[in-house]
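seq as requested:
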Amino acid sequence: MSKIVIVLTSHTQLGDTGKPTGFYFEEMAAPYWALMDAGHEVDIASISGGAAVHDPSSMNVDPAKRPAPVVRFMSDAAAMAKLSNTRPLGEIDPSGFDGVFLAGGHGTMFDFPENEFLGRIVGSIYDTGGIIGAVCHGPAGLMNARRADGMPIVAGQRVSSFTDAEEEAVGLAEVMPFLLESRLRDLGALFEGAGNFQAHAVLDRRLVTGQNPASAPIVAEKLVEALASLSKSRLAGA
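struct tokens:
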């Protein structure tokens, strides 16, 4: 089976509002379990390494109302150990992975776009035929990712993310350093979005992206599908 690294933000403050942020828990947990259940090996890394901090808004205070993947993750000692000791992105060798998944959360908008390690990892895995996945604000990590020819990996590809309209709807358009949908379009992406907060995901060749937290389960399914296709193609070429 394949080896995938899930990358999380290390940014914990929402601009200058004084409000906390971080990664969105379900957007990490749903792909994690989909990949693990399919037999893949999954590492968890973050920009700075160490304990990853989730956005408080992604964790319902009532455990009975939490999504099943979140409940399962929190009750699994091995999974929680990975989350408490994420690998620093600077220590990740992309040659050891078949795919990378960028979980969302508003924190990603502040530390994903300009991170040189993240851009290099995503670009390298893409160039070697691997699978790239991202959901909600996770595609912010595609901003600095280039193919070997220097073009953005999103250029000419169907892509989704948290939309500009959704950012306006949650009242954070002025807090964000940029609007993600607009930036993806500027990079040449063929952007696709559904109505506000509706589940929507896109698989275009080896790039899997989803619009919002509700899209995480669909993105997870498409990620597993893409990895299965990759495995078949590699076996056929062996």
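Residues 216-237 form the longest helix (22 residues).
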